[in-house]
Amino acid sequence: MALDLAQKPHDRLAEMLSADMEAVNLLIRERMASEHAPRIPQVTAHLIEAGGKRLRPMLTLAAARLCGYSGPYHVHLAAAVEFIHTATLLHDDVVDESAQRRGRPTANLLWDNKSSVLVGDYLFARAFQLMTEPGQIRVLGILANASATIAEGEVLQLTAAQDLATTEEIYLKVVRGKTAALFSAATEVGGVIAGAPEAAVQALYTYGDALGIAFQIADDLLDYGGTASVIGKNTGDDFRERKLTLPLIKAVAKADAAERAFWVRVIEKGDQREGDLQEALAIMSRHGALEAARADALVWADRARAALAALPDHPLRQVLDDLSVYVVSRLA
């Protein structure tokens, strides 16, 4: 999977879709306004203008353009996708009691939990208004289902967290909820709004789903070996927060009695001591858990790339292909 990183794929996407993204940003600013509650645009602007990559709305725009769409409504759907994403971030930071997001204080820290939850609810409502404007019930169904899957994934993560009985199958359901559901909905609605053939719409769904899973596994792996500048958080944060991500689940599945006792202490009981992160890494290394998780990420990236074969030949298709390679290239 060789990749020329002279310019990152999401930067190339942003360049190719710059006019569309400008329209999306204008629509976002217009729809995040509130005549009666000035705190809504304050909280929303704090997060939306924090310099995120805007990858999800770009996936919607790219999918629509790739399938030959020339109407205005891909912009509405891209804005809806970004509002759903922003709403989930606001809610996530409350649930996780986070103090930082993209290197800045979180909204719940600057304002309060109530503001974050209620503004998140407002953005979900705005997203649904935007979804209805193209007048396509299928588009509404896809994004509504994705919103339900995201919420379901968050609740599942709550119950699966710190439970050593969590399997790879449960982990995959959580990942589909927290990451892949919005990726796949973003790409799928782009194809639907463009009136693409069913095979192309299905390929776009498969691409988004596989890309999202590869992206999340890579993110979880980097927590055990990335740098803070690459991952936007400190190495070992997931371990300290006792999150059962894929490398840890794989190591637990192969644990002997002594190793299992260690996992029970540090993950289930939360009794973490000096040197425990190094011990966790040593156990994962001993069982090849990090390598096995990396191999899984590469398989999902390959699935994403394979799905693109059913789509029209287009410069954007190559960038989407490069993006699949890029999300796992950080694991090299």
Automatic annotation (TrEMBL):
GO-annotated molecular function: all-trans-octaprenyl-diphosphate synthase activity; metal ion binding
Single GO BP term: isoprenoid biosynthetic process
Record's catalysed reaction(s): 5 isopentenyl diphosphate + (2E,6E)-farnesyl diphosphate = all-trans-octaprenyl diphosphate + 5 diphosphate
Role noted for this protein: Supplies octaprenyl diphosphate, the precursor for the side chain of the isoprenoid quinones ubiquinone and menaquinone.
Domain of life according to the entry: Bacteria
SUPFAM superfamilies: Terpenoid synthases (SSF48576)
EC number, as in UniProt: 2.5.1.90
Organism of provenance: Tabrizicola oligotrophica
Record protein name field: Octaprenyl diphosphate synthase
Gene3D superfamilies reported in the protein's UniProt record: Farnesyl Diphosphate Synthase
Co-factor(s): Mg(2+)
Family to which the UniProt record says this protein belongs: Belongs to the FPP/GGPP synthase family.
Keyword vocabulary terms for this entry: Magnesium, Metal-binding, Transferase
CDD domains: Trans_IPPS_HT
Cited InterPro entries: Isoprenoid_synthase_dom_sf (IPR008949), Polyprenyl_synt (IPR000092), Polyprenyl_synt_CS (IPR033749)
